[in-house]
Specification:
With 274 residues, this protein is mainly α. It has one domain. It has 10 helices and no strands. It has helices at 4-9, 13-18, 25-49, 56-94, 101-139, 142-148, 153-191, 196-199, 207-233, 238-271. Helix 7 crosses helix 9 and helix 9 (207-233) runs antiparallel to helix 10. The longest helix is centred in the first third of the chain and has 39 residues, at 56-94.
Length: 274
C-alpha cells in the first residue's frame, strides 16, 4: 500500500510535462546559423524578384549613411590619430628616420585598419538601429500584418536595409579612411615633425590593397545588415525582447565582422599579396 509520503515524492505526469528541456549551446547556434542562412538566401532572391515600395532604399541610405557620418568621422579621427602616434613611437625605438611612416600607415589603413576597425563602430550604430526597428515591428505585430497582406517581411524590411547598408557602409568606411589618414597626418606633422610632402606617400600602396579594402567594406556592410535584421525578425516578448535583440544584433555583427575579416584577410594574402 502506497503511503502519502511516497505519493508526494513520486513525479506526476503533469510535472514531467511541465519540465521543458532547454536546447544546448550547439543546437542554439546551429538554429541561429540556419535561420541566418535562410534570411540571406531570401534577401538575395528578393533583390532580384522583390516588389518593394519606391524610395525605401533611398530612405534607408539616409538613415544608415547620413546619420552615421558624424559619429564615424569622430571615431575614425581618434582611431587614426592613436594608431599613427603608436606607430611613430614604436618606429623611433628601432630607427630614428620616419620618412616611410606615411606610406606604411596608408597601406595599413587601406588594407586592414579602415574597413575592419571602422566596421565595428558602424555595427554599433547601424546594427542596433536595424534590430530595434524591425524588432519593434515584430512585437507590435506589424510583420504579421504584412504577411496577411501577402507581403514577405524580408522583401519589405530586410532588402532595403541590406542594399542601403552595402552602399552607404562602403561610402562611410571609405570616407572614414580619409578622415583617419588626415588625423594621422596632423599628428605626424605636429608631434613628430614629419615633412608633409614625405608623409603623403602612396608608392607602397598597390591596386590589390585598394581592391581588398573595398571588398571588405562591401562585405561588412552586408553582414551587419543581415545579422541585425535576422535578430530583429526573431524578436519576442515585448519591449524587453527588443532590448535583448538589439544587444544580440550588436554582438553578433561584431563577431561576424571579426570572422569575415579573418577569412578575407587570409584569402586576400594570396589573391592580393601585400
Amino acid at each position: 500500500m502506497t503511503t502519502a509520503t511516497e505519493t508526494n515524492a513520486m513525479p506526476t505526469k503533469t510535472d514531467a510535462e511541465a519540465e521543458v528541456r532547454k536546447p544546448g549551446a550547439f543546437q542554439f547556434y546551429a538554429e541561429e546559423l540556419s535561420d541566418l542562412l535562410r534570411v540571406t538566401i531570401r534577401t538575395f532572391y528578393y533583390i532580384v524578384r522583390g516588389k518593394r515600395e519606391k524610395g525605401d532604399v533611398i530612405r534607408q541610405c539616409f538613415e544608415i549613411g547620413n546619420k552615421s557620418m558624424f559619429f564615424m568621422a569622430v571615431t575614425m579621427a581618434f582611431i587614426g590619430a592613436i594608431v599613427l602616434f603608436q606607430m611613430c613611437m614604436q618606429a623611433k625605438r628601432i630607427i630614428p628616420d620616419l620618412t616611410m611612416i606615411g606610406g606604411m600607415y596608408a597601406k595599413l589603413l587601406i588594407r586592414e585598419l579602415a574597413p575592419s576597425v571602422g566596421a565595428m563602430p558602424f555595427a554599433t550604430r547601424v546594427g542596433a538601429g536595424i534590430a530595434a526597428e524591425i524588432g519593434s515591428m515584430v512585437v507590435t505585430e506589424q510583420t504579421d500584418a504584412l504577411r496577411m497582406s501577402g507581403a514577405d517581411p524580408v522583401d519589405y524590411l530586410v532588402v532595403p536595409r541590406f542594399v542601403a547598408s552595402v552602399i552607404m557602409g562602403t561610402i562611410v568606411l571609405v570616407l572614414g579612411a580619409g578622415i583617419a589618414y588626415g588625423a594621422g597626418f596632423v599628428v605626424g606633422v605636429t608631434t613628430f615633425d614629419i615633412n608633409p610632402n614625405t608623409f603623403i606617400n602612396f608608392t607602397s600602396v598597390k591596386g590589390g590593397d585598394v581592391a581588398l579594402g573595398l571588398i571588405k567594406c562591401v562585405c561588412y556592410g552586408g553582414i551587419i545588415a543581415l545579422v541585425s535584421s535576422q535578430r530583429g525578425l526573431r524578436t519576442f516578448g515585448g519591449s524587453e525582447g527588443v532590448g535583448i535583440a538589439t544587444t544580440q544584433a550588436v554582438v553578433g555583427s561584431l563577431f561576424a565582422v571579426i570572422v569575415a575579416n579573418f577569412i578575407l584577410s587570409s584569402v586576400g594574402h594570396f589573391v592580393f599579396p601585400p
